[in-house]
Amino acid sequence: IFAAPSMTGAEKSHPDTGINSVQSYQLSKNPHFTLVVKESPDGNKYPELVLEKSLDREKQNSHHLILTAVDGGDPVRSGTAHIRVNVTDANDNPPVFTEEIYKVSVRENLLRGSLVLQVKATDQDEGVYAQITYSFSNVPDNARTLFYLDPEKGRITNTRILDFEDTHKYMLGVEARDGGGQSAHSKVQITILDENDNAPEVTFTSVNSPVAEDSVPGTVIALIKVRDQDTGENGEVTCHIQHKLPFKIAVSSNILGISPIFMIFK
Ligand SMILES: *[C@@H]1O[C@H](CO)[C@@H](O)[C@H](O)[C@H]1NC(C)=O
């Protein structure tokens, strides 16, 4: 609190004595300050400005008061002083994130160093008490070397290629800390979207070869398993035999529900 009084008028210094000296002081009406009038041993009255109700710089950062001194003469004379009280900042506000949880979906194979998401926190204080530094607070091991959080800007970028087949979803804890040590926490949920980046893998589970020339049509020659690591449409596969050959291919019922088994018939 800084008070800068400046007396105005003839009563700045009051040489009168007795009834003509200062009799009372008044303070303009305000919700925070009161006046306590004290008396020094030589009988002089002097006012003290006392804080009655706590101040909040974020609501009002300065207060203007008028102090009036009145004497007991006839005519009554008075003098005024303007008091300006500037309220300095205390770190009484923690940072606040704009979201409780940030959610974003990004395609796998996103280029390294791409912006995934930007988090933001605000702080009602000023100066260093409003200077926010971002950091990860709670990050699973598999994400530790995958994402980078810019401490000043809150930008999250990927430091490596994301792989849907490795992990579909990451949950990262982020912290915002102001220059006075107050902090806030939020979460970032990153969903990785599948891209068709895996080719089907074909494996023979059994082959009856060679095939006797007198095999009857409909004899099973081979069982084939086809697997595609992608999801949804990207993971659906069809099989067919190239060129005109005396074989046909058919899908067997997908009994185990894992991957379809194709059978080759003569
Ligand atoms: C009080 O605040 C005002 C307005 O911000 C500024 O002009 C003035 O210099 C300040 N006084 C002190 C003593 O800080």
UniProtKB/TrEMBL annotation:
The keyword ATP-binding does not apply. Its main location: membrane. PROSITE patterns: CADHERIN_1 (PS00232), CADHERIN_2 (PS50268). The keyword Calcium applies. It is a single-pass type I membrane protein. Residues 13-97, 98-202 form the Cadherin domain. Keywords: Calcium, Cell adhesion, Cell membrane, Glycoprotein, Membrane, Repeat, Signal, Transmembrane, Transmembrane helix. CDD domains: Cadherin_repeat. Coiled coil: none annotated. One of its GO terms (cellular component) is plasma membrane. It is found in: Cell membrane. One of its GO terms (biological process) is homophilic cell adhesion via plasma membrane adhesion molecules. GO terms for molecular function: calcium ion binding. PANTHER family: CADHERIN-87A, PROTOCADHERIN GAMMA-B3-RELATED. This is Cadherin domain-containing protein.
